[in-house]
Specification:
By secondary structure, the protein is an all-alpha fold. Helices cover about 60% and strands about 0% of the residues. The protein has one domain.
Amino acid sequence: MNEVCPECGLVFGRGQHGYFTGAMYFSYALAIPLIGLLTLIEWLFFPGWTLFQLVLSATAICVPLIPWVWQYSRVLWIHFDQYIDPEGSS
């Protein structure tokens, strides 16, 4: 990931260790509905499966998507952080 935005010069991470820890919440907020949607779609195709099997299968399908979800959770975190505490407002 770039340290600084090439367009606007925004410093990503604000130079703090653990800055993107808050992105975990956004990652969770993106992943859970995705797993729920996949579970519903699987249930339509495999109505005889148990809920445990459906959720486990949906989670396995989501594992390759983790880098995509994490990338967009970081983007959402930066936008949220800039909305709450814009850089340069201090």
